[in-house]
Design brief:
- Residues 4-158 form the DNA-directed RNA polymerase subunit 2 hybrid-binding domain.
- One of its GO terms (biological process) is DNA-templated transcription.
- Its EC number is 2.7.7.6.
- 26% of the residues lie in helices and 18% in strands.
- The chain is of the alpha+beta class and 261 residues long.
- The protein has three domains: 13-128, Dna-directed Rna Polymerase Ii 140kd Polypeptide, Chain: B, Domain 6, CATH 2.40.270.10; 139-187, RNA polymerase alpha subunit dimerisation domain (DCoH-like); 192-249, no CATH class.
- The strands form four sheets. A four-stranded antiparallel sheet has the order 10-9-8-11.
- The protein is elongated and about 100 Å long.
């Protein structure tokens, strides 16, 4: 049996006993962390937006009850058959000098000044999951693509591309990074070129066609207009080109309005 001792790093995954999982997004030294009036420095700072989405109020009750037990010096059992209600926990914290919600004043570790807002802190059991950044690190310059969509394959074992999903797209949209978004989803994904006939505004093909003198040349040709004139080349994702071809096979013809930039 082989084992390694690893320190938590950015990207490692943790979870509480209530299924409130999360990923380490930032590491900070202890002296820069906020601390309570008793000098207690928290080990983990959790984003409060995680609770409405995951709906894990049991973790808040665990922290509040554990805080009252640690300060009161009494052991309580929180089995499903006990009556440790929110009112009982709130009253216990209130008797110990805290607000009924368990929040307290904290001091900024960098400035030493008291923060204006109250912070809820309490003991929670957190466990480390097997999903670690050291095992999931992945990079790629060029590699195999899917034969149908011409987009990078998804499997890391096949040296696939790094996934850029809907949430990553939403983040770049919120930041207004249009050039970066264009690069991720188009230039580095399934860049392709398509010929458009400006006369009928339909897609043209690149074929071998006969010309005068008995020769054959390869070039763009519009099957609707029976001509190779007024055909321009545009850059589109190959997925859009594939959609156009699939719709065309079902009798749905799309038209492209092009203009010279």
């Amino acid at each position: 049996m082989n084992f390694q001792v690893r320190s938590p790093c950015v990207g490692d995954k943790f979870s509480s006993m209530h299924g409130q999982k999360g990923v380490v997004g930032f590491l900070e030294s202890q002296e820069n962390f906020p601390f309570t009036c008793q000098g207690i420095v928290p080990d983990i700072v959790i984003n409060p937006h995680a609770f409405p989405t995951r709906q894990t109020p049991g973790q808040l009750l665990e922290a509040a009850l554990g805080k009252g037990i640690a300060l009161g010096g009494k052991i309580r059992y929180a089995t499903p058959f006990t009556t440790a209600t929110v009112e009982v926990i709130s009253e216990q914290l209130h008797k110990l000098g805290f607000s009924r919600g368990g929040a307290e004043s904290v001091l900024n570790g960098q400035t030493g000044k008291r923060m204006q807002q109250l912070i809820f802190a309490g003991p929670n059991f957190y466990q480390r999951l097997i999903h670690m950044a050291e095992d999931k690190v992945k990079f790629r310059n060029t590699g195999p693509v899917h034969p149908l969509t011409r987009q990078p394959v998804a499997d890391r074992k096949r040296f696939g591309g790094v996934k850029f999903g809907e949430m990553e797209r939403d983040c770049l949209l919120a930041h207004g990074a249009a050039a970066n978004l264009h690069e991720r989803l188009f230039t580095l994904s399934d860049f392709s070129e398509m010929r458009i006939c400006q006369t009928c505004e339909r897609g043209a093909n690149v074929i071998m066609r006969p010309v005068s003198g008995g020769r054959k040349i390869r070039g763009p040709y519009c099957g609707f207009c029976k001509s190779s004139e007024n055909i321009v080349k545009i850059a589109v994702p190959y997925g859009a080109k594939l959609l156009y071809q699939e719709l065309f096979s079902m009798g749905i013809c799309l038209k492209f309005q092009t203009e010279v930039c």
